Amino acid sequence: MPEACTQQANSATAWYLWRGDIFRVPLSTLQRMKRQGGWDLHDVAAESRALFFIRPRAQSEYAGSLTSEWLRKWDLLTPYTNPPHMYRIPANVEYLGQFAMDTAYIPPREHSESCLVYKRCIYNTMHVFLSTTNEPLELRIARLWPNTDLETVWQNVHETPVSGTVKVTWYQAIHDIVSKHERRHKIRLVPSDLCGHCNRTDTLQHRLTECGEGPQIWEWTRQRLASILRTDWRRIPPDWLLRPTFKMWPPQRRRAVCGYLPTL
Ligand SMILES: [Zn+2]
After folding, report:
1. Which of 100, 110, 193, 238: CA 20 to 30 A from 149?
2. pTM of the full structure
3. What phi and psi values does residue 105 have, to the nearest 5 degrees?
4. pLDDT (tens digit, 9 = 90+) per residue, 168-177?
5. Are 49 and 102 in contact (CB under 8 A)?
6. How many domains does the chain fold into?
7. Among 84, 111, 134, where does a domain finish?
């Protein structure tokens, strides 16, 4: 797919997801796997290149077809061993050059491999291949909280037994993209970063545990969690709301604890 079309598809997706939101998670982050801080969002560029790769290989299985003859003529039915030094493929079938290049990275399908698994494998390879050139490797929140076990955070978020909408809200809160005065002030949208109620810095943590009815709701939640964990409520840190790094056994207990946090 031409790059301009990929950009149009990505713009339409971003518009659908974010509408008028000021703070967003980049599309490249959403396209990561869930355990890496993404949302398994479809990567249009990787998908179109995977389809583009699968098509000639499928056609090559029909003896006598034009594609099959071309692939045989330029010896493209086996993985290419030296991609930087490809021999010349005519400009009018330039797409076969791309196909030849990709064969170097994607082995032929194994006999025991189902078609679906093979397609998924090609998509994953294309996604990793394209993302290493396009996206910053480190997430913004990994820079904000360098010592946080983010893999556990994402596991807790995605396994929590709440509705999809609540889960998305928690995901946004953890990515620190919920609009509060502190962040809006940094980009000069509001004159001050202070809370309109109590004059303290207006962060999401502040709204949830320090301001208005937040402290009462948080204390109630803490006591419920403490009774599940059979511990003192003061041992439940406010950090768990935005950085749920706890690991618990059995998984039912962990999910029960997770279930309380995003509903705050
Ligand atoms: Zn306040």
Report:
1. 193
2. 0.81
3. -105, -15
4. 999 999 999 9
5. yes
6. 2
7. 134
